[in-house]
């Protein structure tokens, strides 16, 4: 089995970006943690980040072709992107939507997600552990 972890805009800045909201762990730290979990379970890890919406669409389609579930932090595209919703639906892919921050406790514009209706489930508010919990949701028996 494999899991594709897809990260959207500005997540390359984790660690320096608004640390009071997003913490001090970097995206590389999160990748390292997931790589450990994957190694322990014999799961292949594809871990990516892009600031460009179309890359995220391409990678969701790719996961669909591979039959791999996706852990998706779409960043701000969560709140704007019908294209990502369509990609998830079109690819028929299992998606766990994740957010580091509790988007429901923040600005009102973060409280609507175009991803959620297409997602298998949503995990928000636990920092890097949101990704770990998403992995557990997919692979813990
Ligand atoms: C985020 C929450 C989004 O609202 C924001 O635009 C992000 C990060 C999170 O992980 O908490 O870029 O997805």
TrEMBL record:
Pfam families: DHquinase_II. It catalyses: 3-dehydroquinate = 3-dehydroshikimate + H2O. Keywords: Amino-acid biosynthesis, Aromatic amino acid biosynthesis, Lyase. One of its GO terms (biological process) is chorismate biosynthetic process. PROSITE patterns: DEHYDROQUINASE_II. Pathway: Metabolic intermediate biosynthesis; chorismate biosynthesis; chorismate from D-erythrose 4-phosphate and phosphoenolpyruvate: step 3/7. Homododecamer. HAMAP family: AroQ. Belongs to the type-II 3-dehydroquinase family. This is 3-dehydroquinate dehydratase. It comes from Methylosinus trichosporium (strain ATCC 35070 / NCIMB 11131 / UNIQEM 75 / OB3b). The gene is aroQ.
């Amino acid at each position: 089995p494999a899991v594709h972890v897809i990260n959207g805009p500005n997540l390359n800045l984790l660690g320096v970006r608004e640390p009071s909201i997003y913490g001090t762990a970097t995206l590389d730290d999160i990748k390292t943690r997931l790589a450990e979990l994957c190694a322990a379970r014999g799961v292949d890890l594809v871990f990516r980040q892009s600031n460009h919406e179309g890359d995220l669409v391409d990678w969701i389609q790719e996961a669909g072709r591979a039959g791999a579930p996706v852990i998706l932090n779409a960043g701000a595209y969560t709140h704007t992107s019908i294209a990502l919703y369509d990609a998830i639906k079109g690819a028929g892919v299992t998606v766990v939507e994740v957010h580091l921050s509790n988007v429901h406790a923040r600005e009102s514009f973060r409280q609507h997600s175009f991803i959620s209706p297409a997602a298998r489930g949503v995990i928000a508010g636990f920092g890097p552990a949101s990704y770990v919990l998403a992995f557990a949701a997919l692979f813990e028996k």
